[in-house]
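Posting this for the archive.
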Amino acid sequence: MRDIEEFLNQLTLPPSTSEAPSVYAFSLHKSGSTLLFNMLSDLAPHAGLTYFSMQDQMFINGIMPNSEIPNSKLFFKPKGYLYGGFRFFPQAYKLENLNNHKKILLIRNPMDALVSMYFSRKKSHAIPKKGLLREVWLKRRESADAQDIEAFVKEKYKSHIKRIKSYKEILSQDNCVIYRYEDIIYDKLSFLKNICQQYGWVIEEKILTKIVNKYDVFPETEKEESHVRQVHPGNYKKKLSAETQQFLELEFQDILEAFGYSVSPTSAFSRLSA
């Protein structure tokens, strides 16, 4: 508790003089979230808004990401900000009048997300330099290093389902637009144009193109120790056994179908027969 108090006492919301309505951007772990938030951080000033991520600030300071934030309204203002960095919906602190604000959610096939999570935890994810969260991440790295990928995904899939379902309350809101990683990764310019349309921003295409060119990275070969490991969708088909793929398809079937992902006939039949 003392760590959180010290963190909040030192935390300063960067200034904004804009009268434009604040907007929000959400994603999930290993679902293109870093790509999304990096591009939005660069884009926000061109819309006259200030980018701010509470969860990123908590990570840097070693604070558990869903710790309670008293008086969260001091940090979430109705005007002037683009709030990003969310990789799950925060339940411990309140986002003021969120239903009144335009928002986006970037998702990814959860099987690809789990595979990416394995390599990230094992080799590439940054570790906080201090705080309780540092100890948590050191244990996560040790645990992932001791597991093979099959065991890891079977252990972690339930927590990923929980993170996806944490967004349930915003999915039905008219001012929420959902994007899939698989649909945007090869056409980031159209993605940014669509985001601008959703938020009601008018930004020159040359600015969007410059931002896209900065982040449009595709490694020639897989780099397991890099944050940008391999990018292309469908990697779970190469990394997981057919048995594990079928297991995960059954567990994620409702989510896969809800977001328009295909489910193999074998998995669909097994679900009906259960």
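The first helix runs from residue 2 to 10. The beta strands are 23-26, 50-52, 81-86, 103-107, 176-180.
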